[in-house]
Design goal:
Number of strands: 9
Number of domains: 1
Number of helices: 5
Distance between the termini: 15 Å
Strand order of the largest sheet: 1-2-3-4-5-9-6
Order of helices and strands: EHHEEEHEHEHEEE
Structural class: alpha+beta
Helix content: 10-25%
Radius of gyration: 15 Å
Shape: globular
CATH superfamily: Gcn5-related N-acetyltransferase (GNAT)
CATH topology: Aminopeptidase
């Protein structure tokens, strides 16, 4: 398994990024200012992640997506652990992740050491040009989860099983 930071031609990863954020105009808002990581295993692209520096020691996972045939194989967890370590080494104190209120994604982030921080009501209905459904539920609110990055903070770092 190898994780690479992508410095050029980030839009080449758009097909996979669209699995994590299905509206291209929303991806355009953070892709250029974010750090893009790509996880390869067996020579194949498995997972991508975009992390932004929000200032004041706060970083945010803006997009995390794993190829459908590679899901539930530990790639997402490995990527989050890598991203958390990268942010920690860059002076980060907190890592945020915003996602829909979905029974598929919330437990995944919690398993990686994130805890709910706050919600942005109507985010998906106000900012996306079409309804977004996950696990049979329409997403409306953005749920922000947070992870402490410094060893002296409460939440544990993301652990790979």
């Amino acid at each position: 398994m190898e994780i690479r930071q992508i410095l050029e031609n980030k839009r080449e990863f758009l097909p996979l990024l669209l699995l994590g954020d299905e509206q291209e105009s929303m991806i355009d808002r953070y892709l250029d200012r974010g750090t893009l990581f790509a996880l390869y295993d067996g020579g194949r692209l498995r997972t991508v992640c975009v992390v932004t520096d929000e200032g004041g020691g706060v970083f945010e996972v803006k997009n995390l997506a794993t190829a459908p045939d590679s899901q539930r194989s530990g790639y997402g967890q490995a990527m989050l652990a890598f991203a958390a370590e990268h942010c920690r080494n860059s002076g980060g104190r907190t890592l945020l992740a915003g996602t829909g209120d979905s029974p598929l994604t919330i437990p995944f982030y919690e398993k990686c050491g994130f805890r709910e921080s706050h919600r942005v009501p109507h985010f998906f209905t106000d900012h996306y040009d079409h309804p977004i459904f996950e696990a049979g539920r329409q997403l409306t609110d953005m749920v922000y989860l947070k992870m402490a990055l410094q060893r002296d903070q409460e939440e544990p770092p993301c652990m790979i099983p």
